[in-house]
Amino acid sequence: MIAIIDYNMGNLASVRNAFAKIGSDATIVRDPDALKDFDKVILPGVGAFGDAMEHLRKSGMESAIRAYAKSGKPMLGICLGMQLLLERSEEFGMHAGLGLIPGEVVKFDTRKFPTPLKIPHMGWNELFVKKETPLFDRLPKAFYLYFVHSYHAVTQSDYVIGETLYGYTFPSAICRDNIYGIQPHPEKSHTNGLQILKNFTEL
What residues act catalytically? Predict the structure, then answer.
């Protein structure tokens, strides 16, 4: 059973529909106490980091997510959901995250871009696989996914399983034990994205 966490910050219908396309049932979950009953958890997210953490705290989901992470069962953060897995973010001030994977979230530094590029980073771009991981089974070493974001992760190479080039290279997929995160939207990425979600169901 797959839970999609509802904390008023995610594109829940798109994620649930993507799982339906691969023949997997996914349940939108609002009750923190119910989270422990699921085999796998999706933490989606669209919006600002600070607002998201406030919703997680007020709903009781923050502590439920931490407890679930300790269970060893797989969890996948998508877009903002991936960023929330890290320790902190500088988006609109400094905010503490879930701290499940060491690292932080920073705004794209356009001063480092060799040529001008628009922020947010929006559209199709390549993810380059950096480490063997079951999340990317049956996919090539580089493949296209759909991105929409103005901030990106910074973390140790130990936790980076995928990178993307936009102005400069940044971590676009991360993992620590049973906790996975991916910056692009697999639910909007057609065949490649559906393969990632299918791989997640098989973890």
Answer: 79, 185, 187
